[in-house]
Amino acid sequence: MELVVGVDAGGTASTAVVATTGGTVLGRGRAGPGNPLTAGAGNAAAAVVTAVRAALGGHSPALVRAATLGIAGPATAAQFAPALAAAGVRGPVAVVGDVVTAFAAGSPAPSGAVLIAGTGAIAAAVHADAVVRTIDGLGWLLGDEGSGRWLGLQAVRVAVRNWSAPLATQLAARTGAGSADEMVYWAQALPWEEIGALAPLVCAAARAGDEHAAAIVAEAVTHLVRTLDEVRAEGPVVLGGGLLAGDTPVRDGVLATLRSRGQHPATSRDPAAGAAWLAARPLSALDPASLHEALLGRS
Predict the structure, then answer these.
(1) For the chain, which end, N or C, has fewer CB atoms within 10 Å of the first or last residue's CB respectively?
(2) First and final CA of the chain: distance in angstroms?
(3) What's the pTM?
(4) pLDDT tens, residue by residue, 171-212
(5) Cβ contact 247:185 at 8 Å
(6) d(CA 196, CA 117)
(7) 30 CB-side CA count, 13 A
(8) Where does 3-105+270-296 sit in CATH, by number?
């Protein structure tokens, strides 16, 4: 039996998938942050190894013929290969951008576009397992329009201008601010994690019919669709990230807009399995589309 490993190594957690080259998922594992930029190279490698060991279960790491890791930002295989080798994984290790694994998790096509909205937001054109063009992904200060942190920030802005509105009341309860001025002071401290964590509240309020929350969500949809349009990529579109892969009004709005144009995007729900597909593809007896369906289901 020949195995492959796919890893989605993020700034919050690392998820690993172990599969056969025939497309059968044998195990999954999860550990801490695996992004060297945020966790440090040594900690990131240790987290990835922990996730891979958990995914292997009782299977020997010596059976692993290849591993692919999807990571945001600058990272190299050399930062992970020694730790994986020490854990018994002897196959070659490849590192690609998490945008590439997000696209691979939604489509087996060689080229296309991926739109991701989670804490941040980015659209990219992907060709031959590489990102050839990106739009946005510029961080909270310069962009990430339509992202979770953007939603939270817009909600705070609306709240301090409309303190008697129901959305402001919900934000006050969440943040502990007793007045608009207190919320201004709270925001000036730049609690970005807490601001981003307001996104589910905004989405829930929009679903419940709150006019301010609905307006914020509608604006987010407009920004995200425009970002996707600007990337100008030929081929299928894949949606990823918590706001676009989960059940949210932002996803609903983006889907409605794209479907009104005759586009039917796929969803990236399992980037670690997408990474496993990339690792298994050159080793499998199956064609890429059949292998993709075996690992990830129909696109």
Answers:
(1) N
(2) 27
(3) 0.90
(4) 999 999 999 999 999 999 999 989 999 999 999 999 999 999
(5) no
(6) 12
(7) 5
(8) 3.30.420.40
